[in-house]
Amino acid sequence: MGRKWSNIKEKKAAKDANTARVYSKFGRKIYMVAKDGEPDPEANQALKFVLEQAKTYNVPKHIIDRAIEKAKGGSEENYDELRYEGFGPNGCMIIVDALTNNVNRTAAELRAAFNKNGGNLGVSGSVAYMFEATAVIGIEGKDEEEILEILMEADLDARDIQEEEDAVIVYTEPDQYHVVQEAFKQAGVTEFTVAEITMLPQNEVALSEEDQQLFDKMVDALEDLEDVQQVYHNVEI
């Protein structure tokens, strides 16, 4: 794993000073997942996962409760979960996950964000093959040896373990996310610095200063879109 998760979180934190945007995106996701399944996280693994991720972004309880209550209330509001793929400056690769109630609007807004910043939308499959879905779990207060011991006692494996400045980051298979996290909880871990399933690039690329500026503008424009939930890329951080 080439990228340091602490660097990614720092960059996200700087961009997410406008927390209303982050809360809105989580509110929409929580509502959709609760509406599509049970509004009880103990009976809905997808909801449980989103709530755990929301906790690492400090989403307030009232935002979460409001989204779940909206789902319980039988709201007719519906969203489609879509993935877009495209290219940025100098051919860097970008994946955008969106939740939308208007596919035409979302596609037009994404296309504009790409085109105005030296990129273009691609067809399905043009980029995703260079990324790998990965569960990422960050733990504070334990070193790599302790983490390995917990995994071994639970008879679990990890793709990779990296000790960073403030946490140990565990990378594992997406379908192992819940069992790995549960093993840490059983070992006394109560909070996680990161807990999500992400798309990690197989290889990273470095951009020139000019291309980096265009790329940063593109990512900002994409993340500012109401329908966009997540942006993944293969640019070196």
- Please, how many helices? 8
**Span between termini:** 12 Å
Going by CATH, the architecture of the largest domain would be 2-Layer Sandwich
Structural class: alpha+beta
Per DSSP E runs of 2 or more residues, the count of β-strands stands at 8
Sheet-strand content, in percent, reads 15-25%
The CATH homologous superfamily name of the largest domain equals YebC, transcriptional regulation domain
The coarse overall form would be globular
Keywords: Cytoplasm, DNA-binding, Transcription, Transcription regulation
Subcellular location: Cytoplasm
Main location: cytoplasm
Domain TACO1/YebC-like N-terminal: 3-74
Write the layout of secondary structure elements.
Blueprint: H1 5-15, H2 19-36, H3 45-56, H4 61-72, E1 80-87, E2 93-100, H5 103-115, E3 120-121, E4 131-139, H6 144-153, E5 160-163, E6 168-172, H7 177-186, E7 194-201, H8 209-223, E8 228-233
Antiparallel strand pairs: 1-2, 1-3, 2-8, 4-6, 4-7, 5-6
Helix pairs in contact: 2-3, 2-4, 5-8
Domain TACO1/YebC-like N-terminal: 3-74
Subcellular location: Cytoplasm
GO biological process, one term: regulation of DNA-templated transcription
